[in-house]
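Can't attach files on this board, so I'm pasting raw text. These are the components:
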Amino acid sequence: MTDKYGSRFASTARADESFPPLPAAKAVVPKERWSPNRSSEHLDEAALAEDPIFGPDTVPSSSKLGPTGRPLPIFPEPPPLDHHGPATVIAMCNQKGGVGKTTSSINLGAALAEYGRKVLLVDFDPQGALSVGLGINPHELDLTIHNLLMERRTTLEDVLLKTNIPNLDLLPCNIDLAAAEVQLVNEVAREQALSRALQPAMADYDILIIDCQPSLGLLTLNALTAAHSVIVPLECEYFALRGVALLTDTIAKVQDRLNPDLRLEGILATMYDARTVHGREVLTRVVEAFGDGVFHSVIGRTVRFPETTVAGEPITTYASTSTGAKAYRQLARELLCRPSRAQQAASRR
Ligand code: ADP
Ligand code: MG
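---
Top answer:
Structure tokens for the assembled complex are below.
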């Protein structure tokens, strides 16, 4: 399990259950490009501007180190779009619960929407936490993504809800979806059901984010089959890396059998507490394990996030100037700085 994923995955196979000791890091970007010891005089800015990873506008800022221990690139404001679509589909996935999948889906989606991207959030966890986080009571819904998956007569427009945030729409979900796991088992192409259901949205949106349930069952397989890439939120705590190898194995199987274009977008460190040695140690280990697969943007631990759930809105509107809102805006810019899928496909050719 190496190059198919790029070397981002190479070390993850081994970074499993036993947190310490981990093998040496294997980063995609040669270490000298981001080594903290390398001064800015040595950076070849012209070469970096041509660089497929950093791209023209993401030359690292001179010497400021980010929380991941690497120089923090400058992530510029994304340029406005003159049209929308075709969509990139991102699955927010980790079979561990409580790691920040739903929080990241909502707030990354809201931040991308602020930057003028048309975003569709797909609640794909029968708990319906994403719907609740946007102020919707999922038990009162007549139509949810379950109807879209199981009934031919239900269309995407029937289920789609507008949120209070411009550019941010939602496919809501409730406990009915739990039945789909059983119902889909006997369907033809059962892993492709979500991909089929989302097709009508692909032309109109720029980004779809699928909030996965905390398991690697059939619903998650559907999400990984529908997705172009996966973001894996990891809570910065001692057992963060537990089970990650199982997740990357599942992604590998989906790549082999269902979706060869699936790739790892990045590992997102969440609930990071920079004040504790423990938090910093865990983040160091995560970067050792995944190298450049870790987003530079790190989400700090703050009580503001649980508050937003109660308020039923993203942190970007609930506490617009908070560090949490800024962190998700930075993540959105980091994501948008990356080469487009078309550019990546061209560079593979
Ligand atoms: P998951 O979807 O992976 O189960 P959630 O996004 O629902 O995880 O987060 C689990 C709990 O942790 C929620 O109560 C949420 O409000 C809280 N939470 C998420 N991110 C943070 C954070 N950065 N700081 C503090 N609490 C957080
Ligand atoms: Mg969740």
